[in-house]
Amino acid sequence: MKRARQYFAALFLARWFVTTFALLALLSIVDSIGAADILPDGTGASGTLWYMALRLPSLYDRVFMFALFISLLVTLLSLIRRQELVGFVSMSVSPLMQAKALVPAVLLVTVASVVVIDQALPRTMSAIENWLGVGAFLEEDAGKPRSLWIAEEETFIEIGSQRGNTLFNLVVYHRAGRGMISAITYAETAVYVGDGWRYGAAETVPLREGASAPQTKWETTLSPLSLQKLGTSPRNLSMADQYRLSQFRGSGVRPSSAYRVWLLDRMTMPIAAIGFVFVSVPLMQQFGRRQTGDRRLIMGIAIAFGYFILDGVLKTVAEGGGVSVMVAVGLPLLLLAGLGIHLNLNAERVR
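and the corresponding structure tokens:
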């Protein structure tokens, strides 16, 4: 059984590498073409390659689980086509034992990928945002960054864009009693000075009698790094930042559920990976000489698309508080586990 585990692991790792490389290469080319409008004028081949390198962790995060499932299906497909699966079964290597043989390699790849994504993704996205501006990828209309809104106790602040320690096109709404707007400050820029942001070319328009005097500074504890993280998609943050911002109160741009859902998503990636193992192995049990496994492969791909569509929809709704975070993360995993149990029981009955 030890040799069987090594053989299964070697087959899986080889196919996982090829599948992941092919998907990343294709997506990197498509992504770089789509980003032509948001790259600075005069960006040559070297700049485009640098952009592609910075985007790799983000693309890897988005294709990893799909590539993992496809790699498992292709691994078992190769065993079917070479008639090796019949040999394993004749040696009493059941589908459950085959799954157990694959689990260590799958867990190794998944845990390593979680660590790489968690460490590399926030750094590369920060580099892209410093280069192209905060929110470069948050709008469907590329090149038009979305405003960043900050809610504090006495003010609402709309930030047009951020580059390093400088904010551009600020609109500050000053609140008085009962939450009424008493004055609005328009500032072309704001520079971080350690204990707040000093306005440049600012004008304060009073809306009520006794409104506050013209403002020259936005006093806040939010640093340039804090604002950058608040403006970044929760999925692109590290787990430490996701947890920290999920507990953040008094200021922010998203509900805490948006950070919790992606924190749990990353933490449960190994569980989802194990679920894919126990679904793919019994699904691909075909032993006839003329059976190529193509139909089972198509079924597996359909299952993958169904799972990821449901998973994506639930997480999107949970980000806004529409459904519980635990339901959004747990329901797809429970359905995957239930399907795996059903398929394994059927496979054991056939034997």
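(Above: one complete record from the training split.) The chain has ten helices and six strands.
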